[in-house]
Amino acid sequence: MPVTYFVALPFGRNEDGDLVPLAAVECQGEGAAKRRAEVLAKTDGNVGAVAFRRSGEPATGEFDPATVIAKFGKVPDDLGEL
Predict the structure, then answer these.
(1) Distance between CA atoms of 72 and 1, rounded to whole angstroms?
(2) pTM
(3) Which among 17, 43, 61, 70 has most CB atoms closer than 10 A?
(4) Alpha helix locations (H) across the chain?
(5) Domain segments of the chain: what residues?
(6) Nearest-angstrom CA–CA distance, 69 and 13
């Protein structure tokens, strides 16, 4: 049975100044992911965050591409790896 995950993913910068993903936070729904990403984007050490959802079959590991719900602050232009 397919499931949908809602995630808030913050971004920081590495030593070279490149944007890097930090620890993702699973959320209970779309609104919660959006609110959490907004807060994470303003948290010390973070420069931005994105909220997204992803559906698929955990048993087989097959998932549809992620759908971005919202972006806050600085995030990579290419989010295809979500």
Answers:
(1) 32
(2) 0.91
(3) 70
(4) 30-41
(5) 3-55
(6) 22
Confidence of residue 1 (pLDDT cuts 50, 70, 90): confident
Please identify which residue in the block is written with the tokens 């699973």: 26
Q: How many CB atoms lie within 10 A of CB 26?
A: 11
Half-sphere exposure of 25 (CA within 13 A, CB side): 21
What six digits make up the tokens of 49? 């965050």
Q: What mean pLDDT do residues 20-40 have?
A: 97
Cα–Cα dist 37/51, whole Å? 6
Report the alpha-carbon distance of residue 62 to residue 35 in Å, rounded.
Answer: 27
Tell me the C-alpha distance between 7 and 54, whole Å: 8
